């Protein structure tokens, strides 16, 4: 089988790439291991909603048109949104096809699947950023009878064993799961490392409104001072709920969650926590205040200061006088651990020398310069700070497709010259 471009993955980024390829009349196919938006269907917990309001659910040629622009989509609604989009743009999706290899053949590519092989001039990998849960090495020290899960396979508190729960990681996933499990009646201990504290709303507007109107989300990857750090920052402590509540560490402690420092080791049935909790909380408070000051300055410069609510500042994170430095799994009744410690993108099917020592694709804003015609999309801060949000897919897909079209044109010229020569 042959086509000009193989797109791997039919999530929001793969579909957005398809939109722009079709706009340029570039022949292509989308290979999807499951169905459109598969990860939204099968790798999210029951109560999860988008962190971005419905008004920011937009893709090229497709926008949210419901009557709740300030609400947050459930996973079922996200899948419906993407299904509608795929139908609207007539995306050439081949569902139930798993890509097993991507190899270079001369100046072209050969894509192996469990349903045959595709030859193509270019390949766009759009398989998302959250393919493999990152589980730290200290997990090897856990007692055998302690159940371990990750956000990819956590569904709801009822599926965890009775007893206390240790949640490791205080980003959006960790904070949301800790809150949900604690409210179900379990005692949760939350191991807190570096985290990003933000309010859900500020001066009467949603945080994501502020991030968009101030241009923060449009900041390009090549304008970011430390792009490596930016791409590895934990997600913000946000939750999308009809009540538009904030979810920071003060919220969690008010619910009864017990805070501890970063999980440093597990030995002889005991978890050992870092003594850095107070410092990391202070740092998160400081960064939140700087972000709010940035918003305030923008509001004055934009002439909107008087049209917004009053300036707000929030109580510093409350830390108990002597946070726990250890926990005994048996004595404290901790029967399960949730590893909310991030993800790695899976590029194990890429059989080309373009991966670093950690198996991550080396690229420049999604362009794999070491292998012309190979592209990546959908990674954190790939081309902009909004790259992993649904409304960020369009701008990145347009950029990638423009570069890809130029590449295909150059290949066509080379082939024509060879034919004449």
Q: Overview of this structure, please?
A:
The chain has 421 residues and is an alpha/beta fold. The protein folds into two domains: 2-131 and 345-419, FAD/NAD(P)-binding domain; 142-338, FAD/NAD(P)-binding domain. It is 28% helix and 19% strand. It has nine helices and 22 strands. The protein has helices at residues 12-23, 38-42, 75-88, 172-183, 207-213, 227-232, 249-255, 277-301, 393-420; strands spanning 5-8, 28-32, 58-59, 62-63, 93-95, 99-105, 108-113, 116-120, 122-125, 132-133, 147-149, 164-168, 188-191, 201-202, 205-206, 258-260, 263-267, 270-273, 326-328, 334-339, 343-344, 374-376. It has a five-stranded parallel β-sheet with strand order 5-2-1-9-22, with helices on one face. Strands 11-20-12-13-16 form a five-stranded parallel β-sheet, with helices on one face. Strand 14 (201-202) and strand 15 (205-206) form a beta hairpin. Helix 1 crosses helix 9 (393-420). The protein starts with a strand and ends with a helix. It holds the Pfam family Pyr_redox_3. GO terms for molecular function: flavin adenine dinucleotide binding; monooxygenase activity. This is Putative flavoprotein involved in K+ transport. Keywords: Oxidoreductase.
Main attributes of the structure:
421 residues; alpha/beta; FAD/NAD(P)-binding domain; 2 domains; five-stranded parallel sheet; 9 helices; 19% strand; globular; Putative flavoprotein involved in K+ transport
């Amino acid at each position: 089988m042959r086509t000009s471009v193989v797109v791997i993955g039919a999530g929001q980024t793969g579909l957005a790439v398809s939109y722009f390829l079709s706009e340029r009349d570039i022949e292509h196919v989308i290979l999807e291991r499951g169905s459109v938006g598969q990860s939204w269907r099968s790798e999210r917990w029951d109560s999860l909603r988008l962190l971005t309001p419905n008004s920011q659910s937009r893709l090229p040629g497709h926008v949210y048109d419901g009557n709740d622009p300030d609400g947050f989509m459930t996973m079922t609604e996200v899948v419906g949104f993407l299904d509608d989009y795929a139908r609207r743009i007539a995306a050439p999706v081949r569902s139930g096809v798993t890509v097993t290899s991507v190899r270079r053949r001369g100046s072209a590519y050969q894509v192996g699947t469990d349903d045959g092989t595709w030859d193509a001039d270019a390949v766009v990998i759009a398989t998302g950023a959250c393919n493999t849960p990152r589980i730290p090495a200290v997990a090897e020290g856990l007692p055998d009878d302690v159940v371990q899960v990750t956000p990819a396979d956590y569904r709801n508190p009822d599926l965890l064993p009775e007893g206390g729960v240790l949640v490791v990681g205080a980003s959006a996933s960790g904070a949301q799961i800790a809150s949900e499990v604690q409210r179900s009646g379990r005692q949760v201990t939350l191991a807190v490392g570096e985290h990003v504290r933000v309010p859900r709303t500020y001066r009467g507007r949603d945080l994501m409104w502020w991030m968009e109107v101030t241009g923060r989300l449009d900041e390009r990857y090549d304008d970011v001072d430390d792009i490596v750090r930016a791409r590895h920052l934990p997600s913000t402590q946000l939750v999308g709920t009809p009540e538009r509540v904030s979810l920071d560490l003060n919220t969690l402690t008010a619910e009864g969650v017990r805070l501890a420092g970063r999980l440093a080791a597990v030995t002889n049935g005991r978890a050992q926590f870092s003594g850095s909790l107070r410092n990391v909380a202070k740092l998160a408070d400081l960064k939140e205040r700087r972000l709010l000051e940035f918003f305030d300055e923008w509001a004055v410069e934009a002439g909107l200061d008087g049209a917004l609510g009053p300036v707000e500042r929030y109580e510093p994170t409350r830390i108990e006088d002597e946070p726990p430095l250890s926990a005994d799994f048996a004595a404290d009744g901790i029967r399960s651990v949730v590893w909310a410690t991030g993800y790695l993108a899976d590029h194990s099917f890429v059989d080309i020398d373009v991966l670093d020592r950690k198996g991550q694709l080396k690229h420049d804003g999604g362009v794999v310069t070491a292998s012309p015609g190979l592209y990546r999309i959908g990674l954190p801060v790939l081309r902009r700070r909004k790259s992993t949000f649904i409304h960020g897919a369009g701008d990145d897909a347009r950029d990638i497709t423009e570069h890809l079209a130029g590449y295909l044109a150059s290949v066509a010229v080379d082939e024509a010259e060879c034919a004449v020569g």
